[in-house]
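Can anyone check this?
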Amino acid sequence: MRVVKGIASRTKRYVAVEALFSEEGRVVPKTIIWDDGRRFVVDEVRDVRRAASLKTGGDGIRYTIRVGSTITYLFYEEPRWFVEERIAEMP
């Protein structure tokens, strides 16, 4: 297991997502909305595939996305969306 300094673990965080449904039937996430109201624009969808979350458990459609300069995963586990939220190390 790879340890990242400052990150103790990750947890599954369910989030609201604004998405575009294309004419071809594709779902394209556009904005992630945190439960405190913060909004994160999805600048780019780099990959879409069925995959498991190895860090938090669960599986579904995994979107590899770019938000600003950060590349991360967004999962659609029908009927909800989730991200792998970082849990900070305790000092």
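Reply from J.R.: I decoded it. Residues 7-88 form one domain.
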